[in-house]
Amino acid sequence: MPIEGAVARLEARRPTSDGAICTISRRGVCSFMLLTVSKRVEFSASRRLFAPKFSAEENRKLFGEESSSRYGTGRNYVAYFVFAGQPDPTTGMLINISEIKERAGGIIHDRYDHRFLNEDNPAFRNKVPTAENVCRQLLEDVVPLFDGKQARLVAVHLRETPERSATAYANNAVDANYWFDFSAARRTISPHLTASENEKLFGISTAEHGHNYRTRLTFRADSPSPKPAFATQEEISALVQSLRAQLDHKNLNRDVDALRGKPITTESLSRFILQSGSNKLPLSRVRLHERNDFFAENWSDEGMFLGMRAAFSAAHRLHVPSFSDAQNSELFGKCNNPRGHGHRYVAEATIGGEYDERSGALANFEELRIALGQGLASWRDKHLDLETEEFRDQPSTGENIVRALWPKIDSALQQRLVRLRLWETANNRFTLRRT
Length: 435
Known about the structure:
Layout: H1 3-8, E1 20-24, E2 30-47, H2 56-63, E3 73-84, H3 97-111, E4 115-116, H4 117-120, H5 131-142, E5 152-161, E6 164-169, E7 174-186, H6 195-202, E8 209-221, H7 233-247, E9 250-251, H8 266-278, E10 285-291, E11 294-299, E12 304-316, H9 325-332, E13 341-352, H10 365-377, E14 382-383, H11 384-387, H12 398-410, E15 417-423, E16 428-434
Parallel strand pairs: 2-4, 7-9, 12-14
Antiparallel strand pairs: 1-2, 2-3, 2-16, 3-5, 5-6, 6-7, 7-8, 8-10, 10-11, 11-12, 12-13, 13-15, 15-16
Helix pairs in contact: 10-12
């Protein structure tokens, strides 16, 4: 499977043919891992979603009420440029992140930032600047800038608003994401388990409580299309309205007919939303956040995942002992400060597995929380280079940190870890995937 496919499909099982890293588990089994580095760049622009070949009413159905904004309406965009490859064994870097900012940022500055995209950017003279088209165009614009580099641009993710985002992949696939919120009460229990089994598996969550849920609906197209490849804005708005009507301000155990007699868990609820939505539109997957640090994700091919986040603070210094002071300063800049500096890192562990129909669970929430916490414990409030074993002989780059963290968490989760993300800052993210 090419790198782009591994990025586009979280649960891919085949080894990548380029840029994959083979790690040896304690059982002596080689697992192929895909490492990516993501850089966040912001820009502001205006645009109008309107196709001249369609009538005003057809444009309204396709793109929503904004199609009537004759002179455009504005967005504060956030673009994430995702690179894959093998890190340099000496520097510990897959790519110098400042290089991404300089090169991709230059394209954004010259062609996108503070522009009316329909008229100021020639790429959109005959192409509607939807979130999907903008991120695909960014990918096409930036890919040539890194020809011949060890790192390859494999995806661009674009957040247009908190409710709307898209991802374009180098293999031509594109995801369209639509977010919506709802609030609901529930008891986390399965009617197929005894009271003691429910208590053991779900703990205090068996008591009635509530969540402010955040839901992402994702549609996938495998190739570019001149027409909306997923559904019209009118159809998607109707789907969101229907789902919110079923779930918002409801007691999920009692008030939703379709859920009666079924386990009420985050996993089962995300599954229900996917199945209910897929009856109306071709959903690819659904992610359901019951809190900022915990989510369940269901895919249309039965794949299911659970993700959890935890923060930790640590100091470090980026430095290669075999390099001169001038070389280290040129390569790492301020990050080479001899006294060190620090970050409040955020780690996100995602596991996969088989959904249990009886319990409605993929895994034990507490076991996932404990595994993540224990994996981070020895690094909390430490200087990574001076006080930990993992970085005595290698630079504490984000790439090396996420690779060192993987076995610490994966072993505690019986090798069920499928993705591990590390945010060094809001702008810099490092991800390791099992492929």
